[in-house]
Amino acid sequence: MNSELHVVFGTGPVGLAVARALERRGARTRLVNRSGTAPGAPATAELLGADACDPAQAKATCAGASVVYQCAAPGYTEWPKLFPALQKSILDAAATANARLVVAENLYMYGETPEALVESLPYAAKTRKGQVRATLSSEVLAAHGAGRVRATIGRASDFFGPFVQGSAVGERTFIAALQGKPVDVLGAPDALHSYTFIDDFGEALVTLGAHDEALGRAWHVPNAAPVTNRKFAELVIEAARSRSSVREVPRWMVKAIGMFKPPVRELVEILYEFERPFIVDDRAFTRAFAPRATPLDAAIQATVEWHRSRLDQAHLRARD
User: Fold this and answer.
1) Which of 33, 39, 123, 249 would bridge 109 by S-S if both were Cys, CB 3.0 to 4.6 A apart?
2) For residue range 77-125, what is the model confidence (pLDDT) as tens digits?
3) Rounded CA gap, 213 and 284, in Å?
4) Segment 139-164, tens digit of pLDDT
5) Its pTM surpasses 0.85
6) What does each C-alpha distance from 313 to 11, 41, 155, 221 come to in angstroms?
7) Cα distances (angstroms) measured from residue 236 to each of 179, 180, 201, 245, 302
8) Which CATH architecture is the domain 5-159+195-220 placed in?
């Protein structure tokens, strides 16, 4: 694997998790973003500044690649406008390089369903972002079916872990617990929910990129056993050794906050995930490739320690 070039588009939490997984394997890795800088990137990775929306630049960055990972995404509020062109550019670049393409996705395309989420569910989303996801996913699989590119998809639930800040269980959850503030729980506190540890997502995407049998379909990446939204918050508070309380945040409150904060406003259409059971079936992946999810308590503890380190560094900078 060391001789292969792995090109990772995007240096957000997913791209960095993929880079860490590749580093553990000693793989040759190129990280691509607009700036060419990425705090937290593995020291062994090459960093390259390029505009992935520009087909020529995307193709140039993929030259010689064996595997391309599509972990880039526009800002949450700009998905309908920018995401289709971004992903098409990366797909075409992977096809030109004759590289395997691994696409990181979430679960929005399924929409609201009373069932556990399995990969065979229809794309029934009625939300804007869900319909964007459905279109993008369909285009990737169609391109594979037409022989244009060899592609596979890994889908994660709401994720948490190092470098995850904007998630529903990102910075707001973990920093609040570390600071002894109330930890917000969206929707129905006692609804079961599957959460994805970001390092498990990265490992799963690299696993998919290494196996030809993964090509041509989507896979749900491993998740720990579902817990209630309240229980997740309580586990974070326990790991932080905090006296924080759990604070319920109903739909009307999210809407009210969203009137003034566009990123919060974008949460409203996917609140259904937290208002009823949202359970992800990952058995296809674990049967095919064996790896299972990190135990939830260990994953939460690692995430608490990462956020604690960030707070400590911020305090040191404030004193200098």
Assistant:
1) 123
2) 899 999 999 999 999 999 999 999 999 999 999 999 988 999 999 999 9
3) 12
4) 999 999 999 999 999 999 999 999 99
5) yes
6) 21, 18, 33, 32
7) 12, 11, 20, 11, 10
8) 3-Layer(aba) Sandwich (3.40)
